[in-house]
Design a protein that fits this description.
The complex is a heterodimer of chains A (229) and B (61). Chain A has 229 residues and is α+β, with helices and mostly antiparallel strands. Chain A contains 8 helices and 8 strands. The relative contact order of chain A is 0.10. Chain B contains 4 helices and no strands. In chain B, helix 2 packs across helix 4 and helix 3 packs across helix 4. Chains A and B meet through helix 1 and helix 3 of A and helix 2 and helix 4 of B.
Chain lengths: 229, 61
């Protein structure tokens, strides 16, 4: 794949995880810079499109004529009815837990690489605004994925006795660890400095391995924006 | 950026908003807007090119 093809793809999909693009970015600084420019542009677009809703007292539109009492009562009844209907619907909807969202996310196909370089790791985690210092861990997959409406850093490590999945979820703080044992995955979601971290494997972890990984990822993952400052 | 987005033709702005803000894939956007994936791809690429040009022009003023 040449520079022109890569830049066309980056122009349309700056966060693409396509293997040929990732491979090209490893060897082409100019295209890597282009990818980073495109992602910064997307961040500006996202900020421009996210309009904060101001808090405070609601302002009643200025009007001199008051509606008849019956009309106002009908309006209140309609509003109350809508609120009750929304409440009933909200309580009736099934809730997807963080654990089930994580396990569900792992059912999507992943393209594993023999090894992910530091540069490719930085590119992959860029949209999550996170940076990882692998420090000897063998990363075989890295991507910035959407999970429950937020960007998360999705990693796979080769532990020597099977692949271990790590998902760093900065927007999902939790108070206490959650044990996961579903759909063939075993592990835990643990509270972290950056929200929470899911650590999962297909096979059982060795004694103390999960705790070691949790401690390592807690120290190895950094906020990319803070790191730049 | 808001001004540049507002000035962007709707045919370019719509797929961009669906991709960046909602997180839809090119295929999902094509289905949503009833376009071919090729057309969505081209519009996304042109949308970013136009936005970058608008921002550069603004910076040079």
């Amino acid at each position: 794949m040449n520079c022109l093809e890569v830049r066309r793809i980056l122009g349309a999909m700056p966060s693409t995880g396509q293997a040929p693009v990732a491979e090209h970015l490893l060897t082409c600084d100019a295209c890597l810079a282009c990818a980073q420019r495109m992602r910064r542009l997307d961040e500006l677009i996202r900020r421009a499109l996210t309009v904060p809703v101001p808090e405070g007292p609601r302002v009643r539109p200025a009007t001199t004529a008051r509606r008849p009492l019956r009309d106002r009562w009908t309006g209140w009844q309609a509003a109350a009815g809508a609120a009750i209907a929304a409440l009933v619907l909200w309580t009736a909807l099934p809730r997807e837990t963080l654990a089930s969202s994580v396990v569900g996310h792992l059912s999507h196909p992943m393209e594993l690489a023999p090894s992910v370089s530091d540069a490719a790791l930085a590119v992959a985690l860029g949209p999550s605004k996170l940076r990882l210092d692998p420090a000897g861990h063998h990363v075989i997959y890295a991507n910035s994925c959407l999970l429950r409406g937020h960007r998360v850093a999705h990693l796979q490590l080769d532990s020597g006795h099977g692949a271990i999945t790590i998902i760093v979820m900065p927007q999902e703080p939790i108070a206490a660890p959650t044990v996961i044992d579903a759909s063939g995955f075993h592990g835990r979601i643990v509270p972290a400095r950056h929200g929470s971290v899911a650590i999962l494997g297909r096979s059982e972890f060795r004694a103390g391995e999960l705790e070691e990984l949790a401690a390592w990822i807690g120290g190895a993952i950094h906020d990319a924006q803070l790191s730049k400052a | 950026m808001r001004t540049a987005l507002a000035r962007l033709d709707a045919r370019y702005r719509e797929p961009l908003v669906l991709q960046v803000l909602i997180g839809l894939s090119v295929k999902e956007i094509a289905s949503e807007l009833q376009l071919s994936t090729g057309a969505v791809f081209t519009r996304l690429m042109r949308a970013r090119t136009k936005l970058r040009a608008a921002l550069d022009a603004e910076a040079n003023e």
